[in-house]
Amino acid sequence: MNAVELVWIDHSIAYRIGDTIYMNYNLLKYPEFMTKTLMHEMKHSLNYQSKDFLLDIKESTLWDNILFCLKNPRGFIGFLPFAIHNKKLAIDITQLTIYAIFAVILWVILN
Q: What is this structure's pTM?
């Protein structure tokens, strides 16, 4: 396994870009959830691939993520499909796909 850098942030929950994992420093209050989240992020590849999408879907910790965000509201930022990272637009393909699926379902229901 390649070495990765861990950077503590004050928003989202956790995400990986290349060889860097960004984690909300509030995760330190929840060691079990932090470990689970870190292990999940370490499974992601350096460059986003389809297996990363499947990893996010199969290993979803949605309920744990929501509970964390209810206690740390800036965590909800991680549910957005777009973000500004190092002054560049970052797109979360998994979140974008989920939003697109919900939009299609809603469109079908309403039409």
A: 0.79
Classify strands 5-9 and 20-24 as parallel, antiparallel or unpaired: parallel
Sheet (strand 5-9) strand order: 5-9, 20-24, 14-17
Residue 111: count other Cβ atoms within 10 Å of its Cβ.
5
The CA distance from 52 to 109, in Å, is 30
Nearest-angstrom CA–CA distance, 32 and 39: 11
Give me the sign of the Cα torsion angle 96, 58, 50, 23: positive
pLDDT in tens, 5-38: 999 999 999 988 888 899 999 999 999 999 999 9
- N-term to C-term CA, the chain: 49
